[in-house]
Write a structure and sequence with these properties.
By secondary structure, the protein is α+β, with helices and mostly antiparallel strands. It contains 17 helices and seven strands. It has three domains: 5-81, Integrase, DNA-binding domain (Double Stranded RNA Binding Domain, 2-Layer Sandwich); 98-193, Orthogonal Bundle (DNA polymerase, domain 1); 206-422, hpI Integrase, Chain A, CATH 1.10.443. The model is unreliable at 394-430 (pLDDT under 50).
């Protein structure tokens, strides 16, 4: 039965999509979202094909019938409307630049699926778009991707190189889905040629913790980073949680640091109970931050924190006399030693701001506030003992920020790393 404008306006969406036919292959598809799309269905060389020709009401019933007749003529002449539409799309896609499609990917995929897209934005702006942005999608070659990724890898930044390769691959995967590209040049560059995948089992021993602290405070990285890397070990927080921390959330009198949901991986608020040792580090960071609202204000600025990768670059510039480890391994180190010292695994998991899985996670809503406070003070004392054992560090927590350390006094001095070996009485030789 032929459709009418009145009948079309009376159509209502259902839980699943459905089709209403008009005749001679013309159909109107009704989506659950209430959108209406014109389809032309036909057989070409014995196979069923279909092509979308427009949306209602932008394309009226009369216009849809006219387009149906045009496409029907193509079939009679031995042409496939669906194949012609694909070819037309590819011709258009041939003029789409990597920059344009990367922005589309960021808007349609990254912003929709990632709570914090700043890492992706940084890799796009600083690495991918400067190198590939002006090339059309179809002109990006395997060698283009390899040159960009290997340059980063050979600079000693294997993790960043792998992340850049993966982002390019995801962009081109989406381009293929959207029929804006036919091949993915990043697929020809396996991750195994960029970096070694390390098992997530690394934790530091007692002796390695001493090496970590001793080497950290002897290094020439910024004082802020030394304190932050020490503080992550003491509090067991994630790096991002510290980088995004603001002073309004840190109560130095009560010894509590509140991590808001937007800064938490679990998207739930979390309280970190600060040991005496952690409080001393926070107080020095407060002096270094000056009037900034951020606990870790960025280089030369009080208005925004350091970038996500800044601490990785800082620790990557230090040579530790032990097997490789990551900042995240500091959390695993604390969890391992605290479990070995008979603290409840639930208390440890809560301190790590992990979500307990399974039935136990559903029914166990305990916060373990007092147990966590006691455990983190034990952990602070444990680290303190290692820091002073065999004169690894002396007075490492007691440094008072000088005027030149404070960003409001001298932003240039604030951005300059200062060796702790220059601070009288802070370091002693082992």
């Amino acid at each position: 039965m032929a459709l009418t404008e009145l009948a079309i306006r009376a159509l209502r969406p259902q839980a699943t999509r459905y089709l209403i036919t008009d005749g001679r292959g013309l159909c109107l598809e009704v989506l659950p979202s209430a959108k209406l799309s014109w389809l032309y269905r036909y057989r070409f060389k014995g196979k069923a094909e279909k092509v979308m020709i427009g949306r209602y009401p932008a394309m009226s019933l009369k216009e849809a019938r006219g387009e149906r007749d045009r496409l029907s003529g193509m079939v009679l002449r031995g042409q496939s409307p669906a194949a012609e539409k694909r070819r037309s799309k590819m011709e258009v896609a041939g003029h789409v630049t990597t920059r344009d499609f990367a922005e589309r990917y960021f808007k349609e995929v990254v912003r929709r699926n990632q709570k914090d897209p700043r890492n992706v934005r940084r890799y796009l702006d600083n690495e991918i778009l400067p190198a590939l942005g002006n090339k059309s999608l179809r002109d990006v070659t395997v060698m283009d991707v390899q040159t960009l990724v290997f340059r980063k890898r050979d600079n000693g930044q294997e993790s960043s190189a792998a992340a850049i390769r993966d982002l390019i691959k995801r962009i081109f995967d989406y381009a293929i889905v959207c029929e804006a590209a036919q091949v993915n040049p990043a697929k020809a560059l396996p991750t195994r040629f960029i970096t070694k995948i390390r098992a997530r089992t690394r934790s530091l021993s007692r002796d390695e913790i001493k090496i970590y602290l001793y080497t950290l405070y002897r290094s020439n990285i910024r004082r802020q980073f030394k304190l932050a890397l020490h503080l992550i070990l003491l509090t067991l927080v994630r790096k991002s949680e510290l980088l995004l921390a603001q002073w309004k959330d840190v109560d130095l009198d009560c010894g509590e640091w509140k991590i808001p949901p937007e800064n938490s991986k679990t998207e739930k608020p979390h309280i970190v109970y600060l040991s005496n040792q952690a409080l001393r580090l926070f107080r020095e960071l407060k002096a270094l931050a000056g009037e900034s609202v951020w606990v870790m204000p960025g280089r030369g600025s009080l208005t925004k924190p350091f970038s996500h990768n800044a601490m990785n670059q800082a620790i990557g510039s230090i040579t530790f006399d032990m097997p490789p480890f990551t900042i995240h391994d500091l959390r695993r180190t604390g969890a391992t030693i605290l479990n070995e010292n008979a603290f409840s695994s639930d208390v440890v998991e809560k301190a790590l701001n992990h979500t307990i899985s399974g039935v136990r996670g559903v029914y166990n809503r305990a916060e373990y506030a007092e147990q966590r406070r006691e455990m983190l003070q034990f952990w602070g004392d444990y680290i303190d003992q290692l820091a002073t054992e065999n004169s690894v560090l002396v007075e490492s927590f007691g440094h008072v920020a000088s005027a030149e350390d404070r960003p409001e006094s001298n932003l240039k001095a604030h951005s300059r790393g200062t060796s702790d070996s220059q601070r009288i009485g802070e370091m002693v030789q082992p």
